[in-house]
Amino acid sequence: MTAPAVSRTTFAHALRAEWVKFRTLRSSWYTLACLGFVGLGVAALSMSAAGAEYADATPAERLEWDPTALSLRTYLVAQLIIGVLGILVVTSEYATGLMRTSLAATPRRHRLLAAKAVLVAAVAVAAGQVLMFASFLIGQSLLASQATPNAGLGDPGVLPAVAGGGLYLAAIALLATGLAVILRATAGALATLVGVIFLVPALSNLFPAWTQGLFDFWPSIGGAAVMSTVPDPDHPHPWLNLGVMCLGVAAVLVAAFVLFRRRDV
Amino acid sequence: MTEIAIQGLTKRYGPQTVVDDLTFTVEPGQVTGFLGPNGAGKSTTMRMILGLAAPTAGSVTVGGRRYGDLPVPLTEVGALLDAGAVHGDRKAYDHLLALAAGSGLPRRRVDEVLARTGIGAAAGKRAGGFSLGMRQRLGIAAALLGDPRALIFDEPVNGLDPEGIRWIRGFMRSLAEEGRAVLVSSHLMHEMALTADRLVVIGRGRLIADTGMGEFMRSRGAGTVLVRAADPGALAPSLTAAGAAVRAGEAGALVVSGMTGEAIGAVAARRGVALSELTPQLPSLEDAFMELTEDSVEYQGAAA
Question: In this structure, are residues B42 and B202 in contact, taking their beta carbons and an 8 Å threshold?
């Protein structure tokens, strides 16, 4: 009999296992490729039309012209794709029964889920930042080629806006992971995520007044305000909005941890 | 030393009691057959051993400790609950590598278990393309990764072809011979007769029998002898007179119990009756099992 290589397993082992699982699935890389392709594609397409938009704009509209925010608008689509990534890390194991194997190897459930959350956060922060910076640079160069006012990374407020966009995407990925743990199925988690990031913002005007305060911190609405460099009277403290949105994500994750610990698999 | 100890284990889902005050042990160096009809609670019991389901009452310990307290669980217990529990898009090698990484096991263990289960050649293939037999082997390879002292297999031969079944049987025997404690569930009695040293029989979550295999077979009747004779009518009274119980079998044969074939032959010779067949019959384990679990089958068909 071979002696075990370690005397006890740690969080680092669980995290390493999650990384091996992530990198050995083609779907992980397809999803990341899709994120880059669609994300940058949307950025390029929308910015190639922005020159005409600026030319037709009224002087008042020109005052609010925010080339940074425009080039980051691709987050609207990117958040769905990065959300899929956050979901699959969990639901692919439920769908195949692999969750039992994983939990038999790592019976400390909070450790397994924490490893998954850290992996998702790390991948999403990296992918989100790369996407946001690339979108910004491509967008600005397209604006420049149309002789339209554009921004540089060194301009006031630009760097926080771009980096904030990457953080926003990472938060959405974690929200997706939390929903996936709670719902344990890809379809349910994805439908819920779409509801949160697309449907609720689209329908927000129909909702009663007392709910409007919530929208200051809601994904795709107030939570995404950090990506602007022109002050928005509706959201005077955009980082506060993102911070509260992150607290909401944290609350979903706490619920996920509690359920993950309690449930039989 | 007892490897897996189950004490008063109970699991209820709402009003339904799936496992009911179950107590038994799994000892090293033996294959313990865990037998019961479908829905008897075998899988639920195994999930509770692995800490996947929380007992309503009672306890399970592995080497004296709760599963969740084991420092490196895979080195104590290896389990194959469901051969389908691999991601079809992941290569066999990577599946095992992720498990090894999670338990701090060296990479070479992956190669070792692949070789031991005979799927080394398929290591670079995606598990989705595996046959059921290959998936079983991959599942067993995963169970062996940590070189554990106890192994748990849930219905490992289900759906396998004869070749695969024979391999698994031999493999479980060899694991027990290495001194490991092996717990194998099945709803097929004859499967257990070929592999198990001990039998734990449950029905509707309750323990029905916990006994050695040989003991179980003896207690279920010493067996009968099938006798075909030229003149059964003349032989039967003589056998009865000699102390045997005789009943009519099919096509004029006699089914004799309470007497060995040798003694029956001697009686026939004395009576001058020619015998055309003298076949000792093992007690039907399937019958014994059915008898034991008759009352505990969850969904009984209408009497045929």
Answer: yes
* Interface list for B 122-181 with A (CB within 8 A): 142, 146-147
In the chain, the amino acid numbered A162 is V
**CATH number belonging to the domain at B4-214, selected among 3.40.50.300, 2.40.30.60, 2.40.37.10, 2.120.10.30:** 3.40.50.300
CATH of domain B222-282: 3.30.70
Q: Does B14 touch chain A (CB under 8 A)?
A: no
- Which of A9, A106, A110, A259 has the most B C-beta neighbours within 10 Å, making it the best mutation to test the interface with B? A9
Give the mutation candidate from B18, B43, B103 for the A interface (greatest A CB count, under 10 A).
B103
Contact between B265 and B174 (Cβ < 8 Å): no
A50/A45 Cα distance (integer angstroms): 9
From chain B, the residues in CB contact with A98 under 8 A are: 85-87
Helices (H) and strands (E) in chain B, counts: 10, 13
Query: Is the CB of residue B50 less than 8 Å away from at least one CB of chain A?
Result: yes
Q: What one-letter code names the amino acid at B36? A: G
Q: Does A60 touch chain B (CB under 8 A)?
A: no
Q: What's the ipTM?
A: 0.91
- Give the residue from B145, B166, B147 showing the smallest Cα distance to B157: B166
pTM: 0.87
| Rounded distance between C-alpha atoms, residue A88 and residue A32, angstroms | 12
Helix/strand/coil for B59: strand
Tens of pLDDT along B199-234?
Answer: 999 988 999 889 888 777 766 655 678 899 888 888
